[in-house]
Design goal:
The chain is of the alpha/beta class and 285 residues long. The protein has twelve helices and nine strands. Strands 1-2-3-4-5-6-7-9 form an eight-stranded parallel barrel, surrounded by seven helices. Helix 2 (40-50) links the parallel strand 2 and strand 3. Helix 3 packs across helix 5 (108-120) and helix 5 runs parallel beside helix 6 (142-151).
C-alpha cells in the first residue's frame, strides 16, 4: 500500500520528514501529481535522496508539456542513480487542465502511442540503468487501457468507484499492474465526512470524462448535482474509522488492484496530507 497526495503545500523540510515517516511506517510508495507547483523530476530526485527503499511515483506527469527527450533521459537518470525506486506515471490530463497549463491537448490515444515510441528511440550516452524505469498510464477507456497493458507495465486509476476497478482489471487482463488511488477520510461523522468529500470531489465532477465514466457503472446525471449524491460520495471516498477504511482498501485489492495508494484527506478540509490517518492506516500498524 502507498500514499498518494499533492505535496506542494508542504515545505521541502516538511516533505522530507513526511516521506521518512511514510517509509518507516511500512508503506511501499509515495505518489504525487504534477499540478501547478514543483517540477516533478527534480522533486522526485529530492524525495528519493531522502529515503532508502521507498518507491517514488509520479501520479501523473502530463507528457504534453515535455519533449520525449526530456522525460526519457530524466527517468533514465533517476533509474540509474536510485535503482528501481522511480516509477513514471503519465496521463493526458484533460482539455481544461491543459488549457490552464498553457499547453496543447490532442487525441490522447494517438498522442500517447506516438509518445511511447519516441521515448524508446531517445539516445542516452550516460551509464545505463540496470533496468528501464517502469511506466504506467492513467486512463479508463478501453483503448488507453489496452495501450497501457501492451506497451507499459499497466495503469494508474484515480477518482474511481469499486466497480470501475473490477472493470479495469477485466480490460487489462491478469498480468499488467493496476495501481489504484483511493481517497480516504478518517472521520466517523457522516455530515462532516461528506462535506469534506464533496469539497474534494467538486473539481473532478466538473470534468466531463469523469462523469461519463460514472454513467457507465450505474450512476445517473442526478448523482452529480450539489457536489454529488450521498451514494456517489460514499462510493468515491471511503470515510469512517480505521476498520471501515481498511475494508474498502481490501475490496480494491479483491477487485483486481495490484497496488492501492490512499489519498488521506484532512477531515476538516485542506490540502495537506492527514498524518494521523497515514499513521493509523499504515501497513506496520
Amino acid at each position: 500500500m502507498g500514499i498518494r497526495d499533492s505535496l506542494d503545500s508542504l515545505s521541502g523540510a516538511r516533505t522530507r520528514a513526511l516521506v521518512k515517516d511514510v517509509e518507516r511506517l511500512g508503506y511501499s510508495a509515495v505518489w504525487f501529481p504534477e499540478v501547478f507547483g514543483r517540477e516533478p523530476f527534480s522533486f522526485a530526485s529530492y524525495l528519493l535522496a531522502q529515503t532508502e527503499q521507498l518507491i517514488i511515483a509520479t501520479g501523473i506527469v502530463v507528457p504534453y508539456a515535455y519533449e520525449p527527450f526530456a522525460i526519457a533521459n530524466a527517468t533514465r537518470t533517476l533509474a540509474e542513480l536510485y535503482g528501481d525506486r522511480f516509477l513514471l506515471g503519465m496521463g493526458g490530463s484533460n482539455a481544461q487542465g491543459n488549457k490552464k497549463r498553457g499547453i496543447p491537448y490532442g487525441k490522447p490515444i494517438s498522442f500517447m502511442k506516438d509518445y511511447l515510441t519516441r521515448l524508446e528511440s531517445v539516445p542516452y550516452t550516460a551509464p545505463a540503468p540496470e533496468a528501464a524505469p517502469p511506466i504506467v498510464l492513467a486512463g479508463m477507456m478501453p483503448n488507453m487501457l489496452h495501450l497501457a497493458a501492451t506497451q507499459t507495465q499497466g495503469t494508474h486509476t484515480y477518482f474511481t468507484v469499486l466497480d470501475q476497478i473490477t472493470e479495469t482489471r477485466k480490460v487489462l487482463g491478469p498480468e499488467p499492474w493496476l495501481c489504484a488511488a483511493l481517497a480516504v477520510i478518517l472521520e466517523t461523522d457522516p455530515e462532516r465526512a461528506r462535506a469534506t468529500a464533496r469539497d474534494y470531489m467538486r473539481t473532478y465532477l466538473a470534468i466531463e470524462h469523469y462523469r461519463e465514466r460514472f454513467l457507465e457503472v450505474g450512476f445517473s446525471a442526478a448523482d452529480f448535482g450539489s457536489g454529488g449524491s450521498d451514494r456517489l460520495v460514499d462510493s468515491v471516498v471511503v470515510w469512517g474509522d480505521e476498520e471501515a477504511i481498511r475494508k474498502r482498501v481490501f475490496e480494491y485489492y479483491a477487485a483486481g488492484a495490484s497496488h492501492v495508494c490512499i489519498l488521506p484527506l484532512q477531515p476538516g478540509g485542506g490540502l495537506t496530507p492527514h498524518e494521523e490517518a497515514i499513521t493509523l492506516l499504515s501497513p506496520a500498524a
